[in-house]
Please model this.
Amino acid sequence: MSTMQNLNQTHSAGRAGQPARWSRRLTAGAIAVLLGASGLGFAGTANAAPAADAGKRDAQSPTYVPGASVQPTTAESESERYNTWHFGPGDGYAQRVEQQRNGVLLEAGAPTQVIRGNGNDVKQTTDSTPLGDVLDGLELVASDKEDLSYQVGVRVDVNASGTWDDGDLWTTLRAPVGDPSVWTTSQAVGGLGAGAAAPADEMLAALGDRAYAISTGFLAWKPAEPVLVSSFTDTSGVTKFRPAPEATPAGEEKRESAPEIRPNGDTFPGWHDAADAGGRLSYESTIGQWVPGGLNMYGKVQLIKGLEESAYLTNGIDRAQSMRVAATPKSPWDHSEDEDPAAPLWAQVLVRAYPDGVRDVPVDVIVRAAVPKNGDLSQASEWMLSAPVGGVPADTPVSFDEIRAALGEHDVTGYGVFLDTGDYAYLGQIVFNGTTTGFVQSSMPWIVNWSVKLSATTVKPGETITITGTGFDNGGEVLIAGLCRETVPVEATTSFTVTCTVPDDQEPGEVDLAVGYGSVKSRYFITIEAADKPVDPPVEPAAVWSRLGGADRFETAVTVSREHFPNGAKAVVLSRYDVPADALTAAPFAVKQDAPLLLTQTGTLTAATKTELQRLKPDTVYIAGGTGAVSAGVEQQVGALGAKTVRMGGKDRYATANQIAKTGWGKTGASAVFIATGRDFPDALSAGAAAGGVDAPVLLVDGKAGSVRADVQAQITALKPAAVHIAGGTGVVSKGIESGLGRSAKVARHSGADRYATSAAIAKAWHAKSGTVYLATGAGFADALTGAAVAGGKPGPVLLVRSGCVPASVAGVLGEIAPQAGYVLGGSGVVSERVLTNRNTCA
Model:
């Protein structure tokens, strides 16, 4: 009996049905043992890609960076004038990461910088992404974020030369990955000293409008345990630190013919009639029909393709989820349309697994699923293994996630189909990992030398597909039919390029594009998507827009106060300037008291705030937070101005929010309560203005917890609300918290895809047309807080925007509200002049 190549001949009785690498020789008898043990199977190896990362920049294709391609520190990396991933410079910094299946592993106990420059030797300022958007667009997926910081290299074109020169200012900005609301600068900038920390909006204001990001990355500062980093996202896209998947050009089809399918006993790689199971293969001709030729399978047949060892797919089992098998249950002349296509047919992927992470002790197994009626395998298919691996039994349907977890570290070494019946199956096409194999009759060897590529296989009406053909060595004509019809002469040339424009009235769905040459026809499946409907931009009536901003957050708060309280105020709410938690819940309280919200430093009453208090002449000043937030000394300074002080504080931010609610609504109760996470500020910012508009408090919860804290629940019970409104999605405030709140009141959740969309959703739910609108940066909290304290009294929403543009979700709500007046909160370094004058939109 002839043999097939195999890497490992160790197939004990306990490993029956498990696949082997194709390198040494495995006898046909051994393959029969594999088939007999599993009832289906053949040998092979597959690799499961890790699960998709959270929070993706979903429209962009990721860049894959294996650990070995993070380059050591060089002269270029020290100047940050490069555009690849490097280890950051500095004495004592580690210059090594360990490549893992799903990321790179950073050493424990050592500081490591991994950064990427953008190659900006000469700035193109008109093309530069606003620095605020860069800071706002960072995302890192890692096993533990506690010791990780974002790192952004920044140059400031001090002399406005438009190029890098000796007059530039250079600094590095860092912020904790777990809470990137406060940034630290390595150099003195705009009144902030070297090493100073400030919220994002204040840092942006200090840097000014000629600051450009020249690198982005992350820093691990001596983590106690090794940290696995899976992916990094910035405004340029997603970087995945793992092996790249094998790429295949769109629309490429590779045809196989009878002589290229070798009988059992030949050596791999390539297509094989893999085992003598009593079945047979034959080809049928479809000359004169615009359908692909097909392979007639009869009996118990296994057709597989072994991959070259160099082409094994490391951790590639996820490719099985997108596998396609186009087949009918019998030969085309004796099956009815009512029968399930491919009912007796199984799709199979050959896998060599290393469940213990030891490559010297592999487990060979087949991953398989029955081919569904439409031919498309998916995660929802009933998957099973040919042999027990990782706790998953053989021949038992389990979820794809269980398959992936059981395989662990692995390689994919082949794929194909298995006919487990005494009937016929008519196989037209197999698609795996982007490669399409059409099984066509071929009696002339030269026919298989021609190939056709399509520029795209998913298009919309009006779009164009470029068809490129090569290898037409025998002259004659190439016929194109289906979606497009054309005859292309190839007498004088062996190649051609034609374009196919999808008709404007083409209905969505799957259509065929057929190419024929000689007696061979090949069919491509083209997906037609629905045409984009023209969307009229929101009609925004002529509104009067103004900026309320100052040199810093203290002066911005004063400017807002002067605009809305020109004749003084009986009450003022005072909060610390640098941590948002206390002021978040103070905003609707300020609306209830008809009071402005002013900011101060913790240890001393800020000069601008003191001057504004003297102008307002309030009878009462309400202080948000304990003495750790606003000191007793500041309270004494306020009292010396002639105002009564009332402190609303607790042991932490959650208790402070409870105390503010008790002070404002303790006697009367509240018809509604707003709930926001205390871990971050954006959603609570938007909720503050809405809550103020309906006379409701904002309470804080630990959004990651599974239930509401006892003291917060007690405060909600005391307020007796009829409705509880949650600001933010389940990733911000958990389902467990929502479930607990629902026991005592009706619960509604208001959320969007991000902080901007959430602010739009809240604005749409509460604010009527033709009112007043406030726009504030989504990268910081201070300006939006002081705006929320007056917006709720209009009432009007606070909508979050990027520093240089209005997100599309916010722009849509602006059009619906059609405001008569609008305010941009903060200086031009925080929200640009373009937003004030044009409200230009972005994604």
